[in-house]
Task: inverse folding
């Protein structure tokens, strides 16, 4: 039988499908590939995979598992994929993949522009709501998480062909602008004068809040200011524009530092929905979804009750006629489906807003804005904690400023790199050394940025996103363990071997014979399935864990299998191919997380 690997090139899936086909013939049951219970095998026994279905199936059909396993093997056709399967123990079926299959599958993935990811994926239009900082306020670590996770998901979905529309739902509207503008006004601001830097704006915010609290007359003027702003009063609008523009410049600076591709084009702040709010509300009203409650117009979506068992209200129009955060979110979801034609909408927002978002989604579904053909998901995340396990704060007890945090990460990364270079033995034989010569501690700034920013992002992405995580520079910049620095070093090491080899490795077949070669080769084949899993689960940490596995497998391979020094040219070429593909998977995998892979460290 001539063999052409079927896509996706996932040997586990390939084998599972064949195992359940055989088992169905033997038992007469209809089985799904999951029921093959295919697990990684024991490499020491020469098994790449093991199917464990005979044990549970034996009980179901009343047959001794070992007999059943033997009968399944009888029916099993794995020619071209694996060697003849072996029954072991109480009824395990062991598989060892064909070397030629592995070589062909690796080749096919290498030739695929997506390295085997996204096979059979139906491209979708996906709206991702992420970052969403607030005007005239500092971005905090919560916004960092939203920005980093949202950016990684945008990259992964684009990679598999989705049409991603980023929507930066910045908080640029609301009653707070009344007091901000009034405060500016009373400080002598006029259209054309400068509203100042963000630091000034933050101070202005504090000052306005205090003023509002102590001076009822000011509070009244601030309220009137909101009305004037909403009515389009030119001076108020000009002041508001300037506040927004100033904050936007600051946000863009942070995005640039982070290497996040969010631009002015992706700005879709709360104010954008102003004109849509009245019709949003009247549609809900026409659908019979609103009730007056204490003067406010509210939706009471099904399934939301407080502890006392009372229905929970989503306020759509306040008693003073104003609209709030919820109304804007309703208008936004309607806009995303109707105008942006979203088929999938992701909200990368902290876990505390879960109930708010679920109520918005339920109301939008009841209104018919979200149909069965649209998937809406809250991509929730936990808090960032300091090393004391409490929400991250400065010693003065203030929330930590994002830019200061990122700057510190870069400085510390420079130290880590400098130390690495200095402790290197003169012959360059340190296992992690690149081919940089000792530079006496001077580390170039772009490199420190790639390492420092990468570490912050990776620390944010590598844990289950719903959990809180501990922010620790020492931990995130460690050279060993599941850190971006470790991955970047592994990549640089592979890149160094390739550089020393000269030309790009010839497209000779990979012959994965030694256990470390096999392990690395099989791991490389999991890039596609892993990325696909991130697409469905929206869990970037799965990609991190995978890349860590690649880096660890590469490290073992590197230690045990001489590459450039191997005598047999076929072995040398095969190993160079493996090295090349490792570098490729690490570089592109890190790229999907928004992290760079420098060629030298
Ligand atoms: N600006 C909000 C905040 O800082 C986040 C907005 C999230 N997106 C949304 N559609 N509600 O908490």
Result:
């Amino acid at each position: 039988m001539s063999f052409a690997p079927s896509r996706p090139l996932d040997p586990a899936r390939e084998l599972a499908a064949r195992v359940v086909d055989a088992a169905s013939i033997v038992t007469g049951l209809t089985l799904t590939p999951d029921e093959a219970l295919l697990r990684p095998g024991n490499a020491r026994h020469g098994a790449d995979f093991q199917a464990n279905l005979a044990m549970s199936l034996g009980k179901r059909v009343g047959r001794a598992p070992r007999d059943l396993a033997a009968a399944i093997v009888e029916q099993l056709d794995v020619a071209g994929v694996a060697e003849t399967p072996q029954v072991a123990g109480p009824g395990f079926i062991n598989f060892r993949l064909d070397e030629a299959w592995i070589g062909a599958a690796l080749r096919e993935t290498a030739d695929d522009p997506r390295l085997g990811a996204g096979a059979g994926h139906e491209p979708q239009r996906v709206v991702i709501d992420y970052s969403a900082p607030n005007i005239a306020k500092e971005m905090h670590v919560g916004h960092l998480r939203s920005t980093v996770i949202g950016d990684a998901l945008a990259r992964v979905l684009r990679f598999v062909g989705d049409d991603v529309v980023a929507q930066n739902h910045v908080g640029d509207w609301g009653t707070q602008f009344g007091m901000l503008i009034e405060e500016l006004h009373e400080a002598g601001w006029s259209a054309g004068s400068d509203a100042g830097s963000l630091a000034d704006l933050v101070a202005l915010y504090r000052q306005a809040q205090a003023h509002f609290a102590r001076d009822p007359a000011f509070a009244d003027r601030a309220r009137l200011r909101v009305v004037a702003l909403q009515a389009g009063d030119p001076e108020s609008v000009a002041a508001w524009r300037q506040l927004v523009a100033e904050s936007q410049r600051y946000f863009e600076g942070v995005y640039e530092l982070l290497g996040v591709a969010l631009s002015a084009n992706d700005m879709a702040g709360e104010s954008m929905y102003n004109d849509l709010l009245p019709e949003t509300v009247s549609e809900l009203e026409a659908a019979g979804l609103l009730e007056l409650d204490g003067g406010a117009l509210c939706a009471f979506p099904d399934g939301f009750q407080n502890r006392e068992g009372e229905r929970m209200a989503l306020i759509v129009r306040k008693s003073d006629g104003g609209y709030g955060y919820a109304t804007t979110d309703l208008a936004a979801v309607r806009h995303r489906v109707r105008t942006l034609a979203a088929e999938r909408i992701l909200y990368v927002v902290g876990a505390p807003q879960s109930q708010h978002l679920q109520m918005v989604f339920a109301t939008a579904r009841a209104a018919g804005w979200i149909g069965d053909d649209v998937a809406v998901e809250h991509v929730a995340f936990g808090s960032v904690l300091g090393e004391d396990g409490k929400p991250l704060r400065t010693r003065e007890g203030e929330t930590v400023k994002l830019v200061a945090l990122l700057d510190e990460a870069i400085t510390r990364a420079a130290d880590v790199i400098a130390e690495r270079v200095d402790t290197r033995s003169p012959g360059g034989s340190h296992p992690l050394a690149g081919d940089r010569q000792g530079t006496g501690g001077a580390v170039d700034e772009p490199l420190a940025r790639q390492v420092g920013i990468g570490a912050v992002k990776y620390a944010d992405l590598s844990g289950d996103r719903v959990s809180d995580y501990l922010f620790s520079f020492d931990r995130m910049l460690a050279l060993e363990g599941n850190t971006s620095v470790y991955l970047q070093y592994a990549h640089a090491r592979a890149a160094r071997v390739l550089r020393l080899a000269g030309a790009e490795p010839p497209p000779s077949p990979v012959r994965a014979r030694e256990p470390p070669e096999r392990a690395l080769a099989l791991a490389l084949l999991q890039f596609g399935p892993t990325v696909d899993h991130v697409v469905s689960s929206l869990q970037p940490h799965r990609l991190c864990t995978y890349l860590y596995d690649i880096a660890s497998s590469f490290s073992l391979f590197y230690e045990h299998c001489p590459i450039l020094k191997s005598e047999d040219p076929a072995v040398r070429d095969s190993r160079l191919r493996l090295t090349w593909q490792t570098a490729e998977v690490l570089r592109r995998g890190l790229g999907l997380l928004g992290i760079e892979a420098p060629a030298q460290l």
The longest strand covers residues 344-350. The first helix runs from residue 11 to 27. The pocket of arginine is lined by residues 129, 132, 134, 169, 171, 329, 332, 347, 349 (CB under 6 Å).
